[in-house]
Amino acid sequence: MTEVSIPTKEQPSKEQIADVRAFTRFYTRQIGLLEERLHKSAFSLTEARVLYELAHRNGLTATDLGRDLGLDAGYLSRLLKKFESRGFVTRAPAPTDARQSVLSITDAGRKAFEPLDRASREEVAGLLGRLSAEHREAVVAAMQRVQRLLGQNREPSTPYILRPLQVGDIGWIIHRQGVLYAREYGWNESYEALAAEILAGFVKSFDPEYENAWIAEREGEVVGSVFLMRKSAEVAKLRLLYVEPSARGLGIGRRLVDECIGFARAKGYKTLTLWTNDVLVSARRIYQAAGFQLTGEERHHSFGKDLVGQTWDLAL
Amino acid sequence: MTEVSIPTKEQPSKEQIADVRAFTRFYTRQIGLLEERLHKSAFSLTEARVLYELAHRNGLTATDLGRDLGLDAGYLSRLLKKFESRGFVTRAPAPTDARQSVLSITDAGRKAFEPLDRASREEVAGLLGRLSAEHREAVVAAMQRVQRLLGQNREPSTPYILRPLQVGDIGWIIHRQGVLYAREYGWNESYEALAAEILAGFVKSFDPEYENAWIAEREGEVVGSVFLMRKSAEVAKLRLLYVEPSARGLGIGRRLVDECIGFARAKGYKTLTLWTNDVLVSARRIYQAAGFQLTGEERHHSFGKDLVGQTWDLAL
DNA sequence: CGCAAACAGTTGACTGAGTCAAGTAATTGC
DNA sequence: GCAATTACTTGACTCAGTCAACTGTTTGCG
After folding, report:
1. Which of residues 277-316 of A touch strand C (CB under 7 A)?
2. Which nucleotide is nearest to A79 (CA to C1')?
3. Where on strand C do bases come within 7 A of a protein Cβ?
4. pLDDT band, residue A155 (cuts 50/70/90)
5. What is the pLDDT of residues A231-266, one digit of tens each?
6. Closest chain B residue to A26 measured between Cα atoms?
């Protein structure tokens, strides 16, 4: 939550680089500690890594292994030969390419790997066991975050899911909108307060028959949301549409608006209305594309800025 | 934000262990990639680590280095001898223990290390440079989180600081309280809505002359908060006291209440009042210790539970 | 098609990072 | 005051990992 003094758009800051290096040093040591016990076993660290991959993935070739683990081809070749001679691994000619063989681990290989695998699990369990349940959860979540952000598998298999509101969501959305609009448009804390007021009212008077909320979640994180509220029997209001900057470009905003429109139609509303500000350009594009018409504009001073408020309506 | 299906209080779950191991494998590879270029330099990885430590810390002995980097004493001894013969390092007899020497890096050592250091920085800059500014910030924050939680330096130098309200705080506090009380006491989303309503009102009608908020922050994270609101010229109300489970036991709750009391006295209030529920045991202890008296109790059904509300007053 | 370039994997020849055990001198603990 | 421990050194070794040269196969392109 610390705000960087000089927001660097393009280049990583010195502090960020230093922090990452500090983490790398730290984790290098951590890995060293975790492996200390293991390298007394029958397998070297690299052998263990290779066995692990073979045990957990199918249809691997030597090239795959070398690429994914960063190993020298020659070294790997010998290593596999040793495994084959001990009966831990078998090679089958690859159907498509006669140069390659498909590797698979044998039962004997799994059996030989098991103690090592268990030792590794115990080692990690010991590390985590020292922490409270709270901290343990937090560590795992943070690791996943690092891995996901740094990982090359940039596109998750499911780009996002929509789900109903849960406890914790409205606070999170208030927080993120507050921070985001402060950063992007310089709005002050009164916007955050407005979001809090709207959402408090939404939950308090929530009518599941005529109202709804959609939360976009991506890999366990909230990345967008929208709320549909009943204004009258004929008019529904779309409120607080937002998409995380990191999740933009996936069509989440459009999808959220479409869900609102579909729900409003199904519930028999005649009009879907919304209020926004002209500075929110990307949101406006979504509204326009969805068929909303601008029906009113007015200048106002809110959130510490001079703004132009806009009302958009969609006939359902 | 994913809720664990079966909350394990004592032992790390299989999933957590698997996740940590996955991360370790991932980062092992990552470190390998970062070092690929470096090991073409004049120094081995271990030599670089030793030089790094020497360049950034003072008064190190060989034992310190061996312990912190996990190196064999014999290997380290030879390594230092080599550095000494090249004029990168000097040894001075340790004042307290004639067996030890205090190591220090020379200017020549720094100079020899510099290209390596720069290459490492560039490598990391390259890694981070592929990310958007958003993602970059998130990665660094998550790494720091892992390091802090896993690091042995359990106690930060400043256990916590108090600061005024910032944009983003109220949403964050609503979120955390919602999640926390749902988890600990099974309260439903209406508590979160109540918190949102209270805080929206606080910000909207905030009178800095007679009202205040204190946020407890620890290593850049919000770990507690309290709000003081004006009820009348003579009565102030303390609201929404909370401390993160991970930061309990540091006296943060007590400190927040004390700040409220001091502020209320300074502003000439005659009474400080608050409303709580009897299930919030640790909060009650703080109020009692601070001299609050229980002045009323009533049963109510709120937040999906049968509760006993309590009013506590303190004469100022 | 045909041929050069690239690729998958193998093998030989190294090297140097890291280990292990035994030893010295100083310090600590009882 | 003496045994146990600690800080460091040294000798002897090994094995993980590198590099380059080679075989057979596939790909790309005129």
Report:
1. none
2. D16
3. 7-13, 16-22, 25-28
4. low
5. 999 999 999 999 998 888 889 999 999 999 999 999
6. B147
**CATH number of the CATH domain containing B32:** 1.10.10.10
Torsion B224-B229-B234-B235 (CA) sign: negative
Query: Which parts of chain B sit beneath pLDDT 70?
Result: 1-10, 37-40, 152-158
Task: Mutation target for B interface from A128, A143, A154, A243: give the one with most B CBs within 10 A.
Answer: A143
**pLDDT value, residue B196:** 97
| Nearest chain A residue (CA) to B139 | A146
Q: Is the pLDDT of residue A1 over 50?
A: no
Pairwise CA distance, residues B16 & A139, whole Å: 9
Residues of chain A in contact with residue B204, where contact means CB-CB under 8 angstroms, are 190, 193, 197
How far from each other are the two terminal CA atoms of chain A, in whole angstroms? 41
Tokens 């202890």, located at residue = B285
pLDDT > 60? residue A68? yes
Domain count of chain B?
A: 2
Q: Which of A127, A150, A173 is the last residue of a domain?
A: A150
Task: Please tell me the distance from the alpha carbon of residue A13 to that of residue B133, in angstroms, as a whole number.
Answer: 10
- Judgement on whether residues A111 and A169 belong to the same structural domain of the protein: no
Sorted by sequence, the CB contacts under 8 Å of residue B75 that are 6+ apart come out as: B46
Looking at the fold, whether A115 and A72 belong to one and the same domain comes out as yes
pLDDT in tens, A100-117: 889 989 999 899 888 888
Question: Are both B145 and B206 inside the same structural domain?
Answer: no
Strands A60-61 and B305-315 come out as unpaired
Parent domain of A276: 161-315
Q: How distant is C1' of C24 from CA of B107, in Å?
A: 32
**Residue B277: inside a domain:** yes
